[in-house]
Amino acid sequence: MARRRRWGQGNVIPPSTSGGTYAIRYHDKAGKRVFESGFTSEPLARQALEARRTDIARQRVGLPADSSRLPTLATLGDAWADRRAQTTRNGAKERANWRTHVRPALNNLHGQDVDVAWVRSYVEGKRATLSGATVRSHVRLLSMLLQDCAERPRETGVTVNTCVGLPRSVRAQIRPTHDPKTTPYIEKLADVERLAAALHEPVRTAFAVGVLAGLRTGEIRALHWDRVNLDRRQLIVSKAVGSDGKIGPTKNTETRVLPMAPELLAVLRARKLATGGKGLVIPSAYLGRRCGPKRIAARTIRSQTLNAAVRAALQGLGLERDGLDFYRATRHTYASHYTLGGGSLDHLSALLGHASAEVTLRYAHLRPQALAEADVARIHVDLVSPRGAVAVLNGQRTGRKTRRSEKSVSRKHNTT
């Protein structure tokens, strides 16, 4: 007589059709029946069933799940970084930071080995040689990796993102030290006109697009005439030049349609008549760096060319300031004057293409506060003529003494 299988041990279910996949069925720690499918062969299904049974047995006695059968975070991170490099604009830079800093620190750790204490030790070790903003980007990379792995706990063994909700002591070490209130911009609109007149083409057009539409430098460099609709007065921003010099998606990989100001419309219309309106709106200013007799033009204008031209013009006009470059003279100037004019921060966030409204709040200190007259606290004291103020105070004190004396006189009269 065949021995009966014990309750709760689980079993392997063969495919119902030819070429199908195997499945396993077992009971978890709480006694709930669990069904999993998608195993290509019977040995893989039995191996997965034994792994589930081992994990359940370890949980019953209070031990963590066996992670030796799962891939390490370094292995998972390599595949994740390669996918990011192909799908995001800064993916190549993120992959370089991953391979240089985060991956060597993880070594052979698994998902459950990375706790708050490990993150704290990593931050403290990196802060000895790197800035808080740089270490913050490393923690952000680790957080995105853990979040990606937590969405596939069966394959990765990661169930929680440790980098979410770090203690205040850890967050204080990776807090950016940059103060947005000290970021320079062109404060007077008359100086904006003077600066535009001092620039040469095509830098002048690039400056006009940045200061009148608020585009990023990479978005200006990748702007194509096909994305400029002069009839509808719209700019379609969908591409940007990354740190590797290649044209790819925007920073947040989203396309935004921006209205075109009349001043920018006049500039782009004149520029289109002069150049024919084909290719990039801001073409390369110089030939490429390739040596030999066949030097070809660069794909896009270099950001160093834009910065050098703006700084030279600022110096010639006597407007140079520390940190004032092409980006701050265009995008930050646009956002600052938009806020000073009473514009909504929510609308500004959409115009600038910020992924989070918290980034736009750096311009909140420029927002004019409209206070009603009733909201102003009034103290009826004349501080212009001190004698009058003293007289008012003396009169109040005299009035208090008079009332007290009247009360004392009435008491005496009642007693008599």
Can you offer a commentary on this structure?
Helix 3 (91-106) packs across helix 5 (132-150). The protein has three domains: 11-60; 73-173, DNA polymerase, domain 1; 186-366, hpI Integrase, Chain A (Orthogonal Bundle), CATH 1.10.443.10. It is globular. A three-stranded antiparallel beta sheet has the order 1-2-3, covered by helices on one side. The protein has a three-stranded antiparallel beta sheet with strand order 4-5-8, with no helix packed on it. The chain has a two-stranded antiparallel ribbon with strand order 6-7. It contains 16 helices and eight strands. Residues 398-402 have low confidence and may be disordered. By secondary structure, the protein is mainly alpha-helical.
Topology:
Elements: E1 11-13, E2 22-27, E3 33-39, H1 42-60, H2 73-87, H3 91-106, H4 116-126, H5 132-150, H6 153-156, H7 168-173, H8 189-198, H9 203-213, H10 217-221, E4 228-229, E5 234-237, E6 239-241, E7 247-249, E8 256-259, H11 262-275, H12 303-317, H13 326-340, H14 345-352, H15 357-360, H16 386-415
Antiparallel strand pairs: 1-2, 2-3, 4-5, 5-8, 6-7
Run of helices and strands: EEEHHHHHHHHHHEEEEEHHHHHH
Reported by name, the CATH topology of the largest domain is: hpI Integrase, Chain A
Net shape: globular
CATH class of the largest domain: Mainly Alpha
Q: CATH-wise, what's the superfamily of the largest domain? A: Intergrase catalytic core
Please work out how many helical segments DSSP would assign. Answer: 16
Q: Please identify the structural class as seen in this structure.
A: mainly alpha
What level of helicity do the residues show? 40-55%
Mean of the pLDDT scores?
Answer: 83
What's the main sheet like? 3 strands, antiparallel
Spans where pLDDT lies below 50 across 5 or more residues: 398-402
What is the total domain count?
3
Strand element count: 8
What is the end-to-end distance? Answer: 121 Å
Strand content: 5-15%
Q: Which second-level CATH architecture of the largest domain applies?
A: Orthogonal Bundle
